[in-house]
Amino acid sequence: MRQGTLRLGAFFYATGHHVAGWRHPSSEADGGLNLARYVGWAQRAEAAKFDLVFLEDGTGIRDTNLRSSERTARSAHFEPVTLLSALAAVTSRIGLVATTSTSFNEPYNVARRFASLDHLSGGRAGWNLVTSTTDAEAANFGNDRIARHTDRYERAEEFADVVLGLWNTWDDGAVVIDRESGQFSKPDGFRPLNHRGTHFEVQGPLNISRTPQGQPVLVQAGSSGPGRDLAARTAEIVFTANQTLAEAVEFYGDLKARLPRFGRVADDLKIMPGLFPVVGRSEAEARAKFEALQDLIDPVVGLALLERMVGGFDLSGYDPEGPVPELPVAEGAKSRQQLMFDLARREGLTLRQLYLRIAGARGHAQIVGTAAQIADEMEERFRAHGADGFNIMPATLPGGLDDFIELVLPELRRRGLFRHEYEGTTLRAHLGTRPPTGFGSAAPARIVQP
Amino acid sequence: MSRDRRLHLGAFMRPAGIHTAWWRYPGGEPDANFSLKHLARFAQRLEAGKFDAFFMADHLAVMNMPMAALRRSATVTSFDPLTLLPALAVLTERIGLIATASTTYNEPYHVARKFASLDHISNGRAGWNLVTSGNPDEALNFGRDAHVDHATRYARAREFFDVVTGLWDSFADDAFLMDPESGVFFDPARMHVLDHRGEHLKVKGPLNVARPIQGWPVIVQAGASEAGRQIAAETAEMVFGSASTLEAAQAFYADVKGRMPAVGRNPDHLKILPGAFVVLGETEDEARAKKARLDDLVHPDSGLANLSVRLGVDAAGFPLDAPLPEIPETNASRSGQAQIVDYARRTGATVRDLARKVGGYGGLQMIGTAAQVADRMEEWLETRACDGFNVMFPFLPEGLDDVVDRLVPELQRRGLFRRNYEGTTLRDHLGLPRPANRFFA
To answer: Are B20 and B361 a contacting pair, CB within 8 Å?
Structure first.
């Protein structure tokens, strides 16, 4: 039987992951606008010994359906790295992982920010690399349309190479601070990157030295073909969305099998699917909690949510009590769209039933039950090599987080599946992974003056 | 004695020490520039000293100087301001937090988001120092062969300002209802889509952050070229001046404020704070001795490198004991170059002299007892050379402690500086109005 403990992420999403969570008394409705809420949640997650806090992101209001977005808490939130920098000052152990897109950023800026966060936090920073998927975001950066899937991933690959390269333009121990001799850094301790590629030309070096973790942890989430290779080559965590055990095991096996090609081993990469738990002291209590949330979903919101998940196609002309219609391939979210269709087909769902299903978990696995039932699912997935851990998505915040900590964590600990105390001080130490190697310039230092 | 004019004080904290050899001074904390622990303590001390703001400069490249000098520089590794300041925000309560962000190598949507987020996180204490990037090597980190030319940088900056402030106005102050009963989170009639289409930038919006606490973070600038002065008159609320003589400062003050009525602005709504490098001692001799000791710690390689950076050309080949040769105009900071060239022509200084002068710190210096420095600050304030100073500390922590423990009380005693914060936001400290939302009544 597979031994070991689970990795757990606390996925914070202002007011919780359930789309109507903000309306429920167990949520703090102003979460997206009020730092004190995040401080509270982060400190609770740290006290519970989670590996990391995770923030997703979008560079714009992705829900272009105003009738819907006015009724959700998704339109205003903090820029994630800015927020994590604040949280770094009020926590000391928990990892801090933020999403930043490769689509509308420059690699130099991204490399800097995460290295700076790593220094600030004593070695707890992680960058979740994503590509932007909506036209709404593209329009905030001078573009009418989002780039095609393959083009986005080409840029993302090169972007990752540049960032990893920049993090490696400095050697460990290059900063010597010798007051006597007046030498602050070793002259051969850092060097340019001299990257010249299709999308980027970046000289470097980075203007930040090697971080407490050496370099931040690289995280990814895409599950499509090019996404899987990029993850195998560069990531230490992969967040993913899967529903059934079979899907989870397939994905896990496929991804881990790609590692040796890049000189890496299975433990170097942790796969953490999202998990949306609603936990009660009894099954009935859990179900009641969930139904209370479902009842708060405004139909306008439910349908709009589904429209976005299947690639932005207008569903308002279809009968909500009828089957999910055939739709063209979505440029913006290929893998998520496929997930939706598979789910609908597998369970024979109507449009309304589908939107009620995904309204909480947005395509991630959802479990409504007792602590034992939830722990059973988690344990099964872990032992079957379907996951190395989970990214916990509380339905409401802080209520859902508190429930998980109070009810599920003790059960996991009882089974020997989760830590009682932190052992290390860095994110990488919590994960037990190793960074990808082979990045950074092999070119000799540019001699400007003798 | 009551006064109608009082000083505003900023603290120049990135790099934490502006003098090249600050980190070598005996008894100091040489890693201060890159330690959250030290910087947090400094911010808290400055807050105890009632400073208006903690200010961070920035660069998007390692400083453009040869390795021989770079290895001696403490600024080769520094925090990104928009990660350090949120951390300081939760460790302080009142002091303003000003970050530099370039308009040349950033996208306005990102800048708008980050500063709006910082303003919320800090309960209304954020400021944006809008720069166009003075370090030519930055271009090479962003896919360009050469630095974008001066005129284009400033044109883009002007448009960038319009976009960022327009995005900050995306939501009316009262847009977020958050009403669980009705299920309405925000009122769509109180949201504005900017849809900016300009010569340099095309940005749709809206911003996905609620309106900042201050309406807009405080707008700060530093360029002193003709283009810089005009953009400041049109848009800035605080200007970090670089004049090093009273006369130059008075001329700059009169010029920039003089341009404001023509663009419909009240000159009181712009505070001009020249940088001031302050070294204190129990006696004037003691203060001068500290400064000399600091200057002696500057290695010649560093001095020449600094001169090269200021001039925008490589000075390493210039004969050391001859006057400064002809210097062409460059794409680097125009006002920075003009100042040192002007000084050289006026005094006939040799290259060696100039290297020594700028090797440590080449701008305005106030060296003496607390009373002497207070006298000088008072004179600058009273004769309209400035509205206050952006104080630079010679070494840390002693230089900062000296100012907080000796200079501030002297200024307070004279009624020249606040004894307590009166408001809670950076705008309150600076006496600036809160901008109305341009799209909503």
So the answer is: yes
Helix (H) / strand (E) element for A294: namely helix A283-295
Q: Are B66 and B305 in contact (CB under 8 A)?
A: yes
Beta-sheet pairing, A201-202 with B271-280: unpaired
Give the count of Cβ contacts less than 8 A between chain A and B.
226
Nearest-by-Cβ selection for A108 from B60, B178, B203:
B60
3-state SS track over chain B: CCCCCCCEEEEEEECCCCCCCHHHCCCCCCCHHHCHHHHHHHHHHHHHCCCCEEEECCCCCCCCCCHHHHCCCCCCCCCCHHHHHHHHHHHCCCCEEEEEEECCCCCHHHHHHHHHHHHHHCCCCEEEEEECCCCHHHHHHCCCCCCCCHHHHHHHHHHHHHHHHHHHCCECCCCEEEECCCCEEECHHHECCCCEECCCCEECCCCCCCCCCCCCCEEEECCCCHHHHHHHHHHCCEEEECCCCHHHHHHHHHHHHHHCHHHCCCHHHCEEEEEEEEEECCCHHHHHHHHHHHHHCCCHHHHHHHHHHHHCCCCCCCCCCCECCCCCCCCCCHHHHHHHHHHHHHHCCEHHHHHHHHHHCCCCEEEECHHHHHHHHHHHHHCCCCCEEEEECCCCCHHHHHHHHHHHHHHHHCCCCCCCCCCCCHHHHHCCCCCCCCCCC
CA distance B192 to B211: 11
DSSP A394: -
Is B421 in the A-facing interface, judged by CB distances under 8 Å? Answer: no
Complex-level ipTM: 0.90
Chain A residues in contact with B24 by the CB 8 A cut-off are: 179, 182
Q: Is the CB of residue A399 less than 8 Å from the CB of residue A26?
A: yes
Joined together, the tokens standing for residue A246 give: 């079979």
State residue A211's pLDDT score: 95
Contacts of A38 (CB under 8 A, 6+ apart): A12, A31, A78, A83, A86, A87
CB distance A101 to A146 below 8 Å? no
Are A167 and A206 in contact, with CB atoms under 8 Å apart?
A: yes
**Structure-token match 């590996």, residue found:** A51
Q: What is the domain class of A7-276+365-431 according to CATH? A: alpha beta
Q: Mean pLDDT lowest for which of A42-56, A162-176, B22-36, B401-415?
A: B22-36
Q: Which of A23, A88, A108 sits opposite B142 (nearest CB)?
A: A108
Asked if B176 and A141 come within 8 Å (Cβ–Cβ), the reply is no
Lowest mean pLDDT across B106-120, B138-152, B283-297: B138-152
Q: What pTM did the predictor assign?
A: 0.91
B327 and chain A in contact, CB less than 8 A: no
Residue with tokens 């039987």: A1
**Residues 6+ away with beta carbon under 8 Å from A31:** A14, A15, A22, A37, A38, A73, A397
B212 contacts on A by Cβ (under 8 Å): none
Q: What is the CATH number of domain B8-281+364-430?
A: 3.20.20.30
Distance of residue A311 Cα from the nearest chain B Cα, in angstroms? 21
Quickly count: other Cβ atoms within 10 Å of residue B180's Cβ: 16
As a whole number, mean pLDDT of residues B63-85 equals 87
Looking at the complex, report in whole angstroms how far the Cα of residue A320 sits from the nearest Cα belonging to chain B.
Answer: 21
The Cβ-side half-sphere exposure at A405, using a 13 Å CA radius, reads 19
- Provide Rg for chain B, Cα atoms: 22
Minimum-distance CB partner of A142 among B26, B118, B201: B201
- SS3 assignment, position A270: strand
Lowest mean pLDDT of A2-6, A98-102, A340-344, name the range. Answer: A340-344
What's the pLDDT at A442?
A: 45
What is the chain A residue with the closest CA to B137?
Answer: A203
Where are chain B's structural domains?
Answer: 8-281+364-430
